[in-house]
Design goal:
The protein has helices at about 5-10, 15-20, 30-45, 70-75, 75-90, 115-120, 135-140, 145-150, 175-185, 200-215, 235-245, 260-275, 305-320, 345-360, and strands at about 60-65, 90-95, 125-130, 155-160, 165-170, 190-195, 225-230, 255-260, 285-290, 300-305, 330-335, 340. By secondary structure, it is of the alpha/beta class.
C-alpha cells in the first residue's frame, strides 16, 4: 500500500510537507499542495478521513454500492425511498457496480477499485448495503477495495449494517424482537420459535435479544426452536420453517418470529405448503421494513419500520459527512419502529386451543 513516505520520495519533499499538503495546511504553497495531491492520486494513495484531498465542486452525485446479491433482494424498498429523498434535495443516485465485466477470455477484466471509480464519477458520498463482517474487511485481501473506500475521503453511510469506520443507519431490530415476544406472550403463545439471519454483528445482537426477551417473559424454548440462516434467502427460510413444522422430534411451535421480510415470505410459503391456516393453526410474527401491510394474514403481529424514515436518516447522515462534521451528530442512528397491533378477538383463544391439542396429541416430554 502506498504511504506518505513513498509520496514524499516521488515529489522530493519531506514527509511532513506531504502530510500538511493532504491536510490543507496554510503554510504550504498551493502549487506544492497541487503537485503532492496529483502525485498521491496517481500513485493510488488513500487518505484518511481527516485528510482533505483536492477540493471538489458540487456535483450532486451520490453513489450506491450493494456488495452481495442477497443484500439487493432485501433493500429495494429502502433504495426507492433513498432515491426519492435525494431527488428532493437535488441529488442523483448512481449505482457503483461491485463486479468486474467479463472479458473475451471469460475472466473478469481488470478495472479500478471502488474508490478510484467513485473519484472518477466525482461522487460526493456513497450509501453502502453490505453483509460483510467488518473484521473480514480489515484482514481479508479480497475485501481490500471496500476497506479503501470506507477509509477514503468520500463520506460513506452504511445502511442496515454496522461499520465502526463510517456513519451507520440501523433499524431497531433488537427492540423489535423484545416488543414482538412480549405481545405474542400476551396473546397466549408459549411455544415460540425464531428464524433469524446470521450476518455481521447482528447475529450476536439478534441472538442476545431473543434470549433477553424470552428471559423477560420467563419462557424456555428448545434449542431446535432457534434457527439461524446463513444468507437470509427465501429458500433457506422456507427449508427451516418446513423443518420446524414437520419435525417429529419436537412439538410444533404455535408461533414463529422472523427477523426480516425475506425470511417472512419464505416462512409463509412453508406454512401454506403444509396446509396450515394463519392465525388459526399457527401465528406468524416478523420485523418488517415496509410502509403498509401487504396481506391481511401476513403476519398477525409485526414490528414495522418505515423505509422512508430509514432513507431520511441515511440522507441526513450523508449530508453531515459531506460537511465534514465528525462531532455534530451521532455516527450511528437507530430508526425506531411501530408495533402493528392487529387485534383479533379469536387469536388468544385459538392459540390456547392449539396449545392444548398439541400437548394432548404429542405429550409434554419434548419440552
Amino acid at each position: 500500500m502506498v504511504t506518505q513516505k513513498d509520496i514524499s520520495a516521488a515529489c522530493g519533499v519531506s514527509i511532513s510537507a506531504v502530510s500538511k499538503a493532504l491536510a490543507d495546511y496554510p503554510d504550504i504553497s498551493e502549487d506544492t499542495k497541487r503537485r503532492i495531491r496529483d502525485t498521491a492520486e496517481k500513485m493510488g494513495y488513500y487518505a484518511k478521513k481527516n485528510e482533505l484531498t483536492v477540493k471538489r465542486e458540487h456535483t450532486y452525485i451520490v453513489g450506491l454500492l450493494i456488495t452481495e446479491e442477497t443484500e439487493r433482494e432485501g433493500c429495494q424498498t429502502v433504495i426507492h425511498e433513498l432515491r426519492k429523498a435525494l431527488v428532493r434535495k437535488g441529488y442523483d443516485l448512481v449505482l457503483l457496480s461491485p463486479e468486474g465485466e467479463k472479458g473475451s477470455s471469460g475472466g473478469k477484466a481488470e478495472r479500478p477499485g471502488y474508490l478510484p471509480r467513485a473519484r472518477l464519477y466525482r461522487m460526493e458520498g456513497i450509501f453502502l448495503f453490505s453483509g460483510i463482517q467488518e473484521r473480514d474487511m480489515y484482514y481479508r485481501e479480497d475485501f481490500r477495495d471496500l476497506r479503501q473506500l470506507i477509509l477514503g475521503e468520500i463520506p460513506v453511510v452504511a445502511v442496515g449494517s454496522f461499520f465502526a469506520s463510517c456513519r451507520c443507519v440501523l433499524p431497531s431490530c433488537e427492540k423489535g424482537i423484545r416488543k414482538l415476544v412480549s405481545e405474542i406472550y400476551r396473546r397466549g403463545h408459549r411455544r415460540i420459535a425464531f428464524v433469524y439471519k446470521e450476518r455481521m454483528q447482528e447475529y450476536r445482537q439478534c441472538y442476545k435479544s431473543i434470549c433477553t426477551s424470552l428471559a423477560e417473559n420467563r419462557l424456555e424454548v428448545p434449542g431446535k426452536y432457534l434457527r439461524d440462516v446463513k444468507s437470509g434467502t427465501f429458500r433457506e427460510a422456507f427449508a427451516q420453517t418446513m423443518d420446524l413444522l414437520q419435525g417429529s422430534r419436537w412439538i410444533r411451535p404455535t408461533c414463529i418470529v422472523f427477523t426480516d421480510d425475506t425470511l417472512l415470505e419464505g416462512g409463509t410459503a412453508a406454512v401454506r405448503r403444509c396446509g396450515l391456516r394463519i392465525p388459526e393453526d399457527i401465528c406468524l410474527a416478523a420485523i418488517r421494513i415496509s410502509e403498509e401491510v401487504k396481506y391481511r394474514d401476513y403476519p398477525v403481529v409485526s414490528w414495522r419500520i418505515s423505509p422512508s424514515k430509514i432513507a431520511e436518516a441515511a440522507v441526513e447522515q450523508l449530508l453531515y459527512g459531506m460537511e465534514g462534521d465528525e462531532h455534530g451528530k451521532d455516527r450511528v442512528v437507530m430508526v425506531d419502529g411501530v408495533l402493528l397491533d392487529e387485534e383479533i378477538e379469536e387469536i388468544e383463544e385459538a392459540a390456547q386451543i392449539y396449545e392444548y391439542r398439541n400437548v394432548y396429541q404429542m405429550g409434554m416430554s419434548h419440552i
